[in-house]
Design a protein that fits this description.
The protein is α/β, with parallel strands linked by helices. It has 2 domains: 199 residues, 3-Layer(aba) Sandwich (Rossmann fold); 107 residues, UDP-galactose 4-epimerase, domain 1 (Alpha-Beta Complex), CATH 3.90.25.10. Helices cover 38% and strands 17% of the residues. The strands form 4 sheets. The chain has a 7-stranded parallel β-sheet, with helices on both faces. A 3-stranded mixed β-sheet has the order 12-9-14. A two-stranded parallel ribbon has the order 7-10. Helix 5 links the parallel strand 5 and strand 6. It binds uridine-5'-diphosphate-4-deoxy-4-fluoro-alpha-D-galactose (UFG). The site of uridine-5'-diphosphate-4-deoxy-4-fluoro-alpha-D-galactose (UFG) has 21 residues, from helix 6 and strand 8.
């Protein structure tokens, strides 16, 4: 492989994937407009601040760096924001991605990995979800990503491209050395919010509903370590490079096991040694009770295996990052 263009490489999952690619000596070029990403998270010298819809810039990067594969992360990804502002999500995610893929394909790039989401399934049933489950998103975020998957499929019927979309379940954790991690502004994800409570940056962690039909009444999710996610992208790229037909284009990434909100809080208390103040609130709109991935095809076809996705490693690595950088990348000074 000559070079890989990673859009959104300054974001949470993007930056960990860039770090993994660099570690295996791949030449990586990042394009990120930094509206939500962080420059400090980018572990390659080849960085362009710009938009995926900037056709001239995208062409220039592909030519200059002889790009032969792209991993496309750049997107808006806050479900509640998408409900309030659907047009923003259709424009930023769907429209811009279609335009970006068109440019990339016209420049002769043939290998595409696309960052998709479990949100395409909507309110799925109480069992591990396989990739052939019906696509029924219940929010504009999921809808905006489902449309891009469809677009890639249609493009591949008329262009000689090879593509894989990875549907993430709940990304969590941080790099093992604690140098990069999760930093969303504003933060809406469970584990960072719990850790901010431990650090005293929040008074209390809200539990959105304890009357779900689950073992302790709180929602169950399939938490997947960001390093295992990053590795799946590398395996997807490798399979695109092989001279063999792809077995399928879309893969779930999850562990096949779920943890409840209360279980996450208890494990965090155990790891940090701090009691966490919690309060039960109303259910959050659009939260399915259980979301667990059936990832058997990712394991069977691409040889993927989760290595860091046990809850202990997820929370320990996230805690290491939050303890060292309580203010995230904005004031990235390591606390001793
Ligand atoms: N939760 C709380 N309190 C909080 C925050 C979250 O109880 O303060 C609960 C939620 O209700 C949910 C669980 O913790 O049951 C996980 O919530 P997150 O916000 O961390 O993650 P989601 O499952 O809502 O979202 C994830 C991804 C999205 C993706 C979605 C697919 O982050 O990008 O899965 O359903 F769209």
């Amino acid at each position: 492989m000559k070079s890989v263009l990673v859009t959104g490489g300054a974001g949470y999952i993007g930056s960990h994937t860039v770090q993994a690619l660099v570690a295996q000596n791949t030449n990586v070029v990042v394009l990120d407009n930094l509206t939500t990403g962080n420059r400090e998270a980018v572990m390659t010298p080849h960085f362009y601040q710009g938009d995926i819809a900037d056709e001239r810039l995208v062409r220039e990067i592909i030519r200059k760096h002889q790009i032969d594969a792209v991993i496309h992360f750049a997107a808006k990804s806050i479900v509640s924001e998408s409900i309030q502002n659907p047009e923003l999500y259709f424009y930023e995610n769907t429209e811009k991605s279609c335009h970006f893929f068109e440019t990339v394909v016209n420049e002769g790039v043939k290998q595409i990995v696309f960052s998709s989401t479990a949100a395409v399934y909507g309110t799925a049933q109480d069992k591990p979800i396989p990739e052939n489950e019906e696509i029924k998103p219940i929010n504009p975020y999921g809808e905006s990503k489902a449309k891009i998957e469809k677009y890639l499929h249609l493009m591949s019927t008329v262009h000689p491209i090879r593509w894989i979309a990875l549907r993430y379940f709940n990304a969590a954790g941080a790099s093992l050395d604690g140098t990069i991690g999760e930093d969303h502004q504003p933060e809406s994800h469970l584990i960072p919010l719990i850790l901010q409570t431990v650090l005293g940056k929040r008074e209390v962690i809200s539990i959105f509903g304890d009357d779900y039909p689950t073992m302790d009444g709180t929602c169950i999710r399939d938490y997947i370590h960001v390093l295992d996610l990053a590795h799946a992208h590398i395996l997807a790229l490798q399979s695109l490079q092989k001279d063999q037909p792809l077995k399928q284009n879309i893969y779930n990434i999850g562990t096949g096991f779920g943890h409840s909100v209360k279980e996450i809080i208890q494990t965090t208390e155990h790891i940090t040694g701090k009691k966490i103040k919690q309060k039960i609130e109303q259910r959050r709109i659009g939260d399915p009770p259980v979301l667990i991935a059936d990832s058997r095809y990712l394991q069977e076809h691409l040889g993927w295996k989760p290595r860091f996705s046990d809850l202990k490693t997820i929370i320990e690595t996230a805690w290491k990052w939050f303890e060292a950088y309580p203010n995230g990348y904005k004031q990235k000074t390591r606390v001793q």
